[in-house]
Amino acid sequence: MAARVGLWDARLALRWLILGEWRFHPARYLLTSVAIAVGVALGFAVHLVNGSALASFGAAVRGVNGSAELSVRAASPLGFDENIYPRVARMDGVQDVSPVVRLDARIGRARLTLLGLDVIRAAAITPALVGVRSQGPGADDDAAFDEDAVYLSRAAMSATGAAVGDTVSLIANGRTRVVRVAGSLPGVGESASVGVIDIAAAQWHFARLGRLDRLDLLVADRSKAQAALRALLPADAVIATADADSVQGDALSRSYRVNLDMLALVALLTGGFLVYSAQSLSVVRRQRAFALARTLGLPRQSVIAALAVEGLAIGLAGATGGLLAGYALAWSALHWFGGDLGAGYFRASSVAIDFQPMAAAGFFALGLIAACAGSALPARLAARVTPAAALRNMGDMLDPRQPVAWWPAAVLLLAGGGVSLLPAVAGLPLFGFVGMGLLLAGGVAGVPWFTRLLLAPAARRPVRAVWRALAVRHLHGAPNEAATALSGIVASTALMIAMATMVTSFRGAVDDWLGDVLSGDLYMRAMPGAGFDPAVRLRLAATPGVTIARFSRQVPLTLAADQPPLMLIARPTERGRNAQLQLIGPAAPVPAGAMPVWVSEPAHRLYGWRQGETIVLPIAGGARMFVAGIWRDYARQAGAVVIDEADYQRLTADLRRDEAQIEVQPGSDPDEVARRILARLPHALRGQVEISRPAALRRFALDLFDQSFAITYLLEAVAILVGLAGVAATMSAQTIAREREFGMLRHLGLTRGQLSRMLATEGAIVGGTGGLAGIALGLLLAQVLIHVINPQSFNWTMTTRIPFATLAAVLAALTLAAAVTAALASRRATARKAVQSVREDW
Hints:
57% helix
């Protein structure tokens, strides 16, 4: 009976011990919960934003493409020969075919996709695209066959400001046609900006005679139809399914999304380290109380369970708050940055947030796991200590004369480095992120050895100031205690330094690349649907003040229906070389009779095209081209190929150009020359052409870069705040836990001022040591980000650039924060009389 009462008393004491800890140290639990919430919020927000953007993108794609189960798509905007149409219609497994002309068009400055349809056939295969509604005075349903009638989706009407019955100027493929808005397209989704006209009018008025862009198929037997199509189609057409465009959009942004998700999970891992640090210090402070409860009969498992409950409570609070904050953050990101988080993958004007219950449950579970894992090791250590030893000693049990084991850290670091070098999985750098996790764990595991190594010279050197000697020798003799304090600091600092180094390296590489690429005085670009024909080009080149005008054409090439298109760039080059490209290595000599092209680094990595090889591109029925060189390109993640404009024109007979690089005469004012160029444009092109200076383009490009990395900058800021908060909590907890030690030192003659200086010195050493370890680990993690994750994700490379100013600022901030926090905490720890501080030892 007495034993049962004692056990009940022990459990009651333990319950009050835990509740008392929560009541007297709420800031510690709040901080650890916030650390978990930050990781959950960032991961959930990124997932919500990208999921919502993909859903909106998929709806827009379905609005443009209708609901055809199978389609034949042109590999480029140049289309394919319409003679394929009757041959496809007679194939086995095909019931009906709807031909489509697809053009990028404009009404004013509003962009839309213009579809030329055979209304009768489209009604059977893609009814959403022809479910027209005629309104207004004089409206009639026969207008669908009128060559001067256009039907607009709700999004197109909203963007153009047009209403049914209005007359508008429609610009497409460099041609302008005045048409009447005959009705709306109620079957097209809200996010798709689409216009529909008769297919014959589209071919006649917009110079597409004999060319088609798509064949939408109604099939009786899909497998038979696909097999027949593979044998029939030319090289400039591809087979696409209903899901191909959604998969293409997913592939385009997948690496970006996965990288953000993984960085958010690393932030969550950092939160787990902070929980471990806080819980470890809490356990050390309450070790004697736990031991007392054990002597009263509490089982070892109850101590573990109690601390696990603490971790679970931290996880529940943090994960719940993280989900709420993540939803708010996602809403704000969609509102301010759009569905692509500023990265430029999706161009929807508005994206509605799409709540994902399974994702919410997954991130909630991850938050719980991180918090519970951070509490598990301290709980086991608390339960393993014998009550007698705990009642007599609360310090670091390591003998200062014994060496600290370095091999666990070395094993983890080597394993992390080795795993990071493994190839990508399905185009994603999953092993790179696993390697980063191992490196982070190895860096934290090596903190005791690093602390002992760093402080060994100072510990051996005689110091006159007693308080300074005590500070150094305490940390040198208790490296495990220091490591516990430093784990959260090192993890958060390493994450921040790694991201800062990666962004600095990437931004510097882009800046240098822009300096090489933007070598002209003026740059001119026609908006989609517009362009410069030969007569206009001659007129512009003769503008007073213009020395050279180099016109170019950019044509997207679809190599596979479910992959983002490759960009073909036709521009003037010199035979066998292209001086305006930033080549990686020397160019290869071009064999006689070969057609040279220059392949971008992303295209080289994506498709395995190597210098000196011959490749086939889907233009002119499959043209064979010689890879003369590989060039650096940070603008087109899906790859690009540069071809001489004379070769391009001979292959395609395409005379239109859409960009120009202009050099002005020495002494001429570029702005004045730009005004002259605009004045010489045909009336239809005015308002459809933009002219920029290199400096403005450079600023614009770097602003886009900063916008695309806005979420990364947010992760950096969060890592800094978590690190500084971890410093404050750690130093405060450690200082308060050593109250009896300070009482003994005061008995030996140290004054309160000397104790404060001693603690401030300890704090500065801890902050500086954590900062140095975090910086070293962060620079190592940055190499994985720069040389493994970036090439495997985005297919481009760069050199490492170290942000020395950031490193110095972080080190100074951590050192100062730790010193100030320790000094402030010392006031509370030394406020009591020396006799009261040590009375428990009597």
